[in-house]
Amino acid sequence: MWVILTCRAAQAAGDGYPNDVFHDNKLKWEFLEMWKWVANRYKDWEWIAGYEIMSEPRTKITPDTEVARFFSDAIAAIRTKDTETPCIIGPAPYYKVMKLNKAYLQNDPKVIYTFDFFLPTDYAQDTEQDKYYPSTYACNDIFSGWVSQMCPHDKNKQFYVDYQFWQDLLDDYPLAL
Description:
By secondary structure, this protein is α/β, with parallel strands linked by helices. About 35% of the residues lie in helices and about 15% in strands.
C-alpha cells in the first residue's frame, strides 16, 4: 500500500487570512519547518508515494504566482531533507481544474500536479434535481462560482456536456502544461 502524506490546514491555506502561509511570514516559516521535519522523518520509509504540501489551498485572493512561489519554497525546504520523494501540488483555490496553469510549473522533475474535476457543480453536491448525461447545462450550473472566468460575457451560456466537453477542459488546462 502506497501512502501520501498530506497537510490539511484550512486556516493556514487561506481561511485564516491574513494569518495564512501566503501573508504571514512567521506562519509560513513554521509550515516549512514542519515539512522539513516530516520529510526527514519519512525519507527512508518504503511506500511513501509523495508529500502533498497543502491539500486544496483555499485562498481565493492570492495570485497564482504567489501560491506557486509558496509551493516552490516548500519543495525547496523538503528537498533539504529528501531529494527523492515526489511533492504533490495543485492550484488555489480547492484544486479547481480551470485554475491549473503554467504559473504552477516547478523546476523539479519530481512534482506531481493534481486538480479536482467536480463538474458540473450539481453532480458533486447532494441535490434532489435529476441529472442527465450527456445533456445541456448553463455555464452557471457547470461552473458555479467561476462564471467570471469560464463565460464572462454570458453566465447562461449553454454547454453540451459530453465526452468532448470533458476532453476540451482537460486539453485547455492540465494537458496544456
